[in-house]
């Protein structure tokens, strides 16, 4: 039990201290209906970006993975909504 609490604490601290975040929009430009406005569509990265910004973290969003990802503390990737195979 102590190990689980320690792990959760460490992950929480890592997330709070992460300032360089990259969101890799690798989902072939899929869109979904915006849950806040059913008349518009948003990319799959929309929820991730909003959650980060709500926690005062401004992510870098790109459709190509950077050559050097070591400069980022965290990496999020969207890969689509279902398997095409």
Question: Which geometry do the CA atoms define?
Answer: globular
Helical proportion?
A: 25-40%
Element order: H for helix, E for strand: HEEEHEE
**Distance between the ends:** 41 Å
- Lateral strand order in the biggest sheet: 4-1-5
Structural class: alpha/beta
Radius of gyration: 15 Å
Note poorly predicted spans.
none
Strand content: 25-35%
Task: State the major sheet.
Answer: 3 strands, parallel
Number of DSSP helical runs: 2
Can you count the beta strands? 5
The chain-level mean pLDDT equals 85
Lay out the secondary structure:
Layout: H1 2-17, E1 21-25, E2 31-34, E3 37-43, H2 46-54, E4 60-62, E5 74-78
Parallel strand pairs: 1-4, 1-5
Antiparallel strand pairs: 2-3
In short:
6% of the residues are buried. The chain has 85 residues and is an alpha/beta fold.
Question: Can you offer a commentary on this structure?
Answer:
Helices cover 29% and strands 28% of the residues. The protein has two helices and five strands, in the order αβββαββ. It has helices spanning 2-17, 46-54, and strands at 21-25, 31-34, 37-43, 60-62, 74-78.
List keywords for this structure.
alpha/beta; three-stranded parallel beta sheet; two-stranded antiparallel ribbon; 5 strands; 29% helix; globular
